[in-house]
What we know:
The complex is a heterodimer.
Chain A: E1 5-7, E2 10-13, E3 19-24, E4 31-37, E5 44-50, E6 53-57, E7 65-68, E8 75-79, E9 88-95, E10 106-107, E11 111-115
Parallel strand pairs in A: 2-11
Antiparallel strand pairs in A: 1-3, 3-8, 4-5, 4-9, 5-6, 7-8, 9-10, 9-11
Chain B: E1 3-5, E2 10-14, E3 19-21, E4 24-26, E5 33-39, E6 46-52, E7 60-61, E8 64-69, E9 74-79, E10 88-97, E11 103-107, E12 111-116
Parallel strand pairs in B: 2-12
Antiparallel strand pairs in B: 1-4, 3-9, 5-6, 5-10, 7-8, 8-9, 10-11, 10-12
Amino acid sequence: DTGVSQNPRHKITKRGQNVTFRCDPISEHNRLYWYRQTLGQGPEFLTYFQNEAQLEKSRLLSDRFSAERPKGSFSTLEIQRTEQGDSAMYLCASSVYRGLYQETQYFGPGTRLLVL
Amino acid sequence: AQTVTQSQPEMSVQEAETVTLSCTYDTSENNYYLFWYKQPPSRQMILVIRQEAYKQQNATENRFSVNFQKAAKSFSLKISDSQLGDTAMYFCAFMKPFTSGTYKYIFGTGTRLKVLA
């Protein structure tokens, strides 16, 4: 089964350092999403790619955050100059368009980030 | 703005019993989808069930069923014959369309369900 995979699963970093996470979507899925989930909360949307184009970005995505999907396959999410408030689970999801409202997102296991 | 509210932070149920998790949402849209996702401890989110707003019939997936009340904007999840493996955080989600033609989910804060042996 080739579900959504994310690496690393856990990351501990010091404040001010840069971190990069990777997401590999389900192979035939052309849509890819990043979410952030803090403790005790549901996931919050960060950004969306259709193929290699980044079409939507949340206001949660500050200038320190950048996401790419260079070849329309895997995606990376980079956080520069990390802050303690960035500590969270970062979830990736993918989907494929099957018609109006015919979409289900499949989630990866997430990358848990702890900023010390 | 759309919001999703899960008013039960934690619930417990005895194995083999039935439990209902509540969810209400707020939207001005007429066509949308609603979902229940399950997130077991330290594991990824799994789709449990989805409901199309234009369908009056409640969705059912094996032991999982929903009670969708569109006028009341209520979307509860019923788990029958609860099993220990149902222990997880359950998230209700509303699917909102973007103008770009895709969708994002708006999640509730979750209900932590514990099934007791």
